[in-house]
Amino acid sequence: MPTALIIGGTTGIGRATAELLHARGYQVAVTGQNPDSLARVQSELPDDVLVVRSDASVLAETDALMAVVSERFGSLDLLFLNAGIFRPAPVVEVAEDSFDQQVDVNFKGQYFTLQKALPLMNDGGSIVLTVGVAARVGSPGATVGAATRGALLAMLPSLALELAPRRIRVNAVSPGATDTPLFDKLGVPQEGRDAMAANIPFGRFGSPQEVAEAVAFLGSEAAGYVTGQDITVAGGYGLGA
Q1: Is residue 191 within 8 Å of residue 149, measured between CB atoms?
Q2: How far apart are CA 96 and CA 98, in angstroms?
Q3: Using CA of residue 179, residue 152, residue 42, residue 219, what is the dihedral sign?
Q4: Which pLDDT belongs to residue 241?
Q5: SUPFAM superfamilies, alphabetically (predicted)?
Q6: pLDDT, block means (10 residues), the chain with 241 residues
Q7: Can you give the pTM of this predicted structure?
Q8: CA angle centred on 23, ends 230 and 75, rounded to 5°
Q9: All residues at 6 or more sequence positions from 223 whose CB lies less than 8 Å from its CB, including other chains
Q10: Which of 172, 157, 22 is nearest to 82 (CA)?
Q11: How far apart are the first and last CA of the chain?
Q12: Of all residues in the chain, what percent are helix, strand and coil, respectively (each to 5)?
């Protein structure tokens, strides 16, 4: 039975991916930090899904996470690095602590989670990073968030080459506007969401399940010859001039 670890898997895209992979026969572990989200996913996902509270920005907690996953699964076939925070602000208003927190979670945390998971990864396994269209398409107030996600994209080719001798594939998914709890957390009103949807060629937000399908593909044998690539799941957003 294949195994998957989803960092940031209690809500939105991460949770949808956990549900999809479990339905397709994976043993699944998910991480998160929010107590309410952890309790909800613990009660709503199947009993055999491993739910672990872990802060991706704290390396000691990542060490503890890998010990738990190793004891439960023994090894990993798919690592989905999906944890992230977004704190939009104009560049003149970005505070140092906000900058550091986004770097620590979105880049440093993902980097060292990958490093610490590698001893558990089976040869021929798959690593998927969540990047996002903001790394390529500008948005006012997104300088730090875009930079941290763009850092993941910049290291993608080097990671793919470095892990190729083990046949571990490293790819990314870049969601566009996706209907997740993020917009509620940011307080985006419905009219703001409608305006965003109007700029998407498909005229709507994506669903977490649509992004999950891309992750599942990258983790499957169907993508066995795909590495170093970024799949954009954004309904055509960013294609026009």
Answers
A1: no
A2: 5
A3: positive
A4: 63
A5: NAD(P)-binding Rossmann-fold domains
A6: 97 97 98 95 95 96 98 98 93 96 96 98 98 86 93 97 98 91 70 78 92 98 98 88 63
A7: 0.93
A8: 70
A9: 126, 169, 171, 217
A10: 172
A11: 46
A12: 50, 20, 30
> Is-contact 231 172, C-beta < 8 A?
yes
Nearest to 212 by CA among 1, 70, 19: 19
CA distances from 86 to 4, 11, 116 (A): 25, 15, 24
**Per-residue confidence (pLDDT) for residue 186, from 0 to 100:** 65
SS3 (DSSP) at 167: coil
CATH of domain 3-233: 3.40.50.720
Residue 14 phi/psi, 5-degree rounding, is -60, -45
Which region, left, alpha or beta, applies to residue 118 given φ > 0 means left and ψ of -120 to 50 means alpha?
Answer: alpha
Residue recorded with tokens 């066995």: 224
3-state secondary structure of 140: coil
Where do the DSSP E strands lie in the chain?
3-7, 27-32, 50-53, 76-81, 121-130, 169-175, 230-233
What is the Cα–Cα distance from 147 to 100, expressed in whole angstroms?
A: 12
Identify which of 59, 54, 7 has the alpha carbon closest to the alpha carbon of residue 28: 7
Report residue 150 as tokens: 């763009």
